[in-house]
Amino acid sequence: MAPMATGTLDTWIHSEQSNTSKKRKSNNTDDNHTPPKRSKRDLTPEPSSTSVAKPSPDSKQATTAASPTLKVIEENGDLFAAPPNTLLIHACNCTGSWSAGIAQAFKLHYPSAYQTYSNHCKATDPEDLIGTAQLIPPQADSTSKHFVGCLFTSRHYGRRKDSPAKILEATGPAMRDLLRLVGEFNAGVSGDAEGVGEVWMCRVNSGLFRVPWSKTRGVLEGIEVGVGDVEGVRVVALEEG
């Protein structure tokens, strides 16, 4: 092979050195004045490994379980034939009168209980009585040894009775108050004394107060009960026919 001319060799060496310098320059990021563009995906921050997961709807429902409510069991029979130490409940006015309907039957069976109720009404303003209750233990003249429970659901009676809406509004608080009184009474029983056993009631508000029983029952079944409270009531009514 013929020797390469000196000029040609020098030209080739100079060309290679120039190309190497350009490559080094392009690879040096410090010399680049325009930063490379980044995609939107590159700009999205990575999720933190310490982030807390949100609770699922199922776990939330499990922590907010509904409390048990009062059970209402209906049957036909004689309310006043309940066993001893049973609590018998009826709805009352706040003026001290048991002159008609189921209230009159309570007055005939438990005259001393009626007097206790009447005295309580005379000593208390109707506005303070409405939505409360009275628990009357068995009296000396009661051979059946029944407790009597009064739910103050109407301020007056007859033509002056409260509207069905107001009566229903007072029924829930009155029943809760009576259940509270039962719990307190039973907690204080000692010695040979006996507390409240079963709990019976008539179809409260459905007689002379003219409130549909289904509406009152709905109110009663919505009352929450706790541990140790009365869990249910037996609604006893004479068989229709």
UniProtKB/TrEMBL annotation:
Region (Disordered): 1-66
EC number of the protein: 3.1.3.84
One Pfam family recorded for the sequence: Macro
Keyword Hydrolase: yes
Name recorded for this polypeptide: ADP-ribose 1''-phosphate phosphatase
Polar residues biased stretches: 46-66
Keywords assigned by UniProt, alphabetized: Hydrolase, Protein phosphatase
An MF annotation (GO) of this entry: hydrolase activity
Function of the protein: Highly specific phosphatase involved in the metabolism of ADP-ribose 1''-phosphate (Appr1p) which is produced as a consequence of tRNA splicing.
Superkingdom as given in the UniProt entry: Eukaryota
InterPro entries linked to this entry: ADP-ribose_metab_enzymes, Macro_dom, Macro_dom-like
Hydrolase is among the record's keywords: yes
Gene3D superfamilies: Leucine Aminopeptidase, subunit E, domain 1
Family: Belongs to the POA1 family.
Domain Macro: from-to ranges: 89-217
Catalytic reaction equation(s): ADP-alpha-D-ribose 1''-phosphate + H2O = ADP-D-ribose + phosphate
